[in-house]
Specification:
Blueprint lengths: L3 E5 L3 H9 L6 E6 L2 H4 L3 H17 L3 H4 L1 H7 L31 H19 L5 E6 L6 H12 L6 E7 L15 H8 E5 L14 H6 L7 H9 L2 H17 L9 H7 L4 H18 L3 H14 L6 H17 L3 H12 L5 H18 L7 H15 L5 H21 L3 H18 L6 H17 L3 H14 L4 H13 L3 H13 L5 H13 L3 H14 L4 H13 L3 H14 L4 H13 L3 H14 L4 H13 L3 H14 L3 H13 L3 H14 L3 H15 L1
Parallel strand pairs: 1-4, 1-5, 2-3, 3-4
Length: 695
């Protein structure tokens, strides 16, 4: 990991001057991350554009391997790498789309981009490099996430990341976030406070164009003042000119940042402005860039004339609230729904509002605030309105779509039989009332959801059969293969599960759950090095993955790598101080170090968190035995055998019984050990106990 820096100063020029005073490796790139330039992934896309040609020439396989990440961040690479949009939702119209990305998708994209950068740096020979990401406090959340990923990853060689922000703390985006840049900066970057530079001479009115040409990103107060002195009409003219100039460059990412900004501030905000924002919002919503979509939607809602632009108003209202819900901003979404209900009498709008509100109560509110009765009431209203639609096919689709939502409520309330009936009725109705090629995506979603319910209720072969049909319909969608892997693992078909997980990862940016499950499947097959590598990479992708720390630490302990096991255990306990499994392992490691008192404390703490943890009882029993406390040892080992009578635990209890002259009980345990495994010491001790009983 490089030595990273966090430059904090009021002006970009202050941070630049302070950076010049640092002893940094050779510069890879200096990038302005301000979101007004190119919207989401302004920084990541600029970096990729600067290295892509060389990277793909040196390592051509990186293009197909990372096509989703590359095209999401850098749409100008369309045609250079394979299309990222090959799954079923891209073959249907906007009104038919019923499947969207998880809010975690952008974190996976950032990790995939980090892999691309890692392999590029290795391909050019490695060595120290410096990447400067400026204006991160003004960056879209995707770039803040990307910066956080680069700062915390340990596999980027000797890359030093320099992050430039204003003097104030970096605020995390609203809603649920996968990683906090503020926290990562505090943990991984050395802060540098940048003193103010001498003020520049006052600018003339002519500098207003410089402000516009900088796409409104400058923090120079003189340029801003020159811009604000111009009459509004003149400012609008400059924005129109800049919008036309940038549009003419033919770079799609400019349509996500600078072009909507200039069109919004130009001479026709409700025409060209809303048109530019709609195009950007639609793209961001489609590919899972929800934070940017929400910002664009809120800007549009501030401009749109609802009475005169009813269709546009509903588009921005619906898109904004849907994306808010996906980000966990359910209260804000609900406020928009309430506002919309108060200003429209359109039945289709009310149908959609009812569905959206139901999803807030069933899915998007935090667990403690979910209200399935409210969800059911709103979903029933959506079903009722759908049943009144005049067009037969529209009526069928919307009714089935709403009942699919109702099935989710039934699943959350443990009514799987009702959920299955709703899903199967919907599948049959679409088959009855629609042509075979109509609403193909939603038909696949219904079958996918049925597979999910089958999996939840243990009907694994039926789940696998449904997933197989969905894969045939939509073979490029990675989640299908991931779910097949999960079912195959539960069926004990681990070789096939490994293949399914590997297929999912070939089709997707890297995501930690796939590597975690892959590690478990490899372990079942006896591939210990492969399992270790996958657990390690799970933690690289998600340093907060507690279960990966637990499994990796335990595996390293079994491999007698005590130092590595201690490091992973310590890191895991920093995340989850009360985790019983990690406390147990800490106790075992401390015992091996000879620190019996601390080991006993750790094991007792583990048992206070989970008194059904057999290995903690067993380990504490061993400590008591070594201390000469035979009664304490027997008590702990009795409990361990009660919970998990493994041969190892029974053998240890037998030794305690034997030392306490409880020979008959010891003989019974040794006999149980020998019934399970062939153990020479157990046989020898059994003979000794039987002789002692006979005398």
């Amino acid at each position: 990991m490089g030595n990273h820096y966090w430059l904090r100063g009021a002006r970009r020029r202050d941070r630049d001057r302070s950076r010049d005073g640092l002893d940094l490796p050779p510069t890879l790139a200096v990038i302005d991350a301000h979101r007004r330039l190119r919207g989401p992934y302004t920084a990541a896309g600029t970096l990729i554009r600067s290295i892509a040609a060389e990277a793909l020439a040196l390592r051509p396989e990186l293009g197909p391997a990372h096509n989703i990440e590359l095209l999401t961040s850098t749409p100008e690479l369309a045609g250079v790498v394979p299309s990222a949009w090959a799954t079923l939702e891209w073959s249907v119209g906007e009104k038919e789309r019923t499947r969207f990305y998880s809010r975690l998708h952008t974190l996976n994209v950032s990790n995939g981009l980090a892999e691309f950068l890692r392999d590029y740096l290795a391909a050019i020979g490695g060595g120290p490099r410096t990447l400067v990401l400026e204006n991160i406090h003004q960056a879209d959340p995707t770039d803040q996430e990307f910066a956080a990923v680069l700062l915390r990853r340990s596999d980027l060689g000797q890359l030093t990341v320099v992050v430039g922000t204003g003097p104030d703390p970096v605020a995390d985006p609203q809603g649920e976030i996968a990683v906090s840049l503020a926290s990562v900066l505090a943990a991984h970057a050395e802060p540098v406070d940048c003193p103010a530079s001498p003020a520049s001479p006052a600018s003339s009115d002519g500098d207003a164009w410089d402000y516009v040409a900088g796409d409104g990103t400058t923090d120079d107060p003189e340029l801003l003042a020159a811009y604000e002195r111009l009459p509004r009409e003149e400012r609008a003219r400059l924005h129109d000119e800049r919008a036309a100039l940038l549009t003419g460059r033919g770079e799609f990412s400019l349509l996500l940042g600078a072009v909507p900004y200039h069109a919004e501030h130009g001479s026709d905000p409700r025409g060209a402005g809303l048109g530019a924002i709609r195009k950007a919002l639609q793209h961001c919503k489609d590919i899972g860039l929800y934070q940017a979509a929400v910002e664009l939607g809120l800007r549009a809602r501030a401009i749109v004339d609802r009475p005169a632009q009813e269709e546009l108003w509903w588009y921005f209202t619906n898109s904004t609230s849907t994306c808010m819900a996906s980000l966990g901003r359910a209260d804000e979404a609900n406020a928009i729904y309430d506002e919309a209900r108060g200003v429209t009498q359109d039945p289709v709008v009310h149908m959609d509002l009812a569905y959206g509100t139901a999803m807030l109560y069933a899915r998007h509110y935090p667990e403690e605030r979910r209200d399935y009765q409210q969800a059911r009431a709103w979903m029933n209203l959506s079903v009722a309105i759908a049943s009144l639609l005049g067009d037969r096919k529209e009526r069928a689709f919307h009714s089935v779509f709403a009942n699919n939502g109702l099935a989710l409520v039934e699943v959350r309330q443990k009514s799987s039989d009702v959920a299955l009936r709703l899903l199967e009725d919907g599948m049959a109705r679409l088959d009855r009332e629609l042509g075979p090629d109509e609403h193909a995506l939603h038909r696949a979603v219904l079958r996918y959801n049925r597979a999910q319910v089958f999996g939840m209720t243990g009907r694994l072969e039926e789940a696998l059969a449904d997933y197989a049909v969905v894969v045939e319909l939509d073979p490029e969608f990675p989640e299908h293969h991931f779910n097949i892997g999960n079912i195959l693992r539960r069926l004990g078909r681990n070789e096939e599960a490994v293949a399914a997980y590997e297929r999912a990862l070939r089709l997707s940016p890297p995501f930690p759950e796939a590597y975690y499950n892959l590690a478990d499947a490899r372990l079942e097959l006896g591939d210990v090095p492969g399992a270790v590598a996958d657990f390690v990479y799970t933690i690289e992708l998600d340093p907060g993955h507690v279960d990966a720390h637990v499994n990796l630490a335990g595996l390293l302990h079994e491999l007698d790598d005590a130092e590595a096991a201690w490091r992973v255990t310590t890191a895991g306990l920093a995340l989850a101080p009360d985790n019983a499994h990690l406390l147990c392992l800490k106790g075992k490691l401390l015992a091996e170090r000879g620190d019996a008192d601390a080991a006993r404390d750790a094991l007792s703490a583990a048992l206070r968190r989970d008194d059904a943890l057999a290995e903690a009882w067993a380990a504490r029993g061993e400590l008591a035995f070594e201390a000469g406390d035979l009664a304490g040892a027997a008590g702990d080992l009795d409990r361990a055998v009660e919970l998990a009578g493994t041969p190892a635990i029974r053998f240890n209890r037998a030794v305690v019984y034997q030392e306490a002259a409880r020979y008959a009980e010891a003989a019974a345990d040794y006999g149980a050990v020998l019934a399970a495994i062939d153990d020479a010491e157990a046989r020898e001790r059994l003979d000794a106990c039987l002789k002692a009983v006979a005398t």
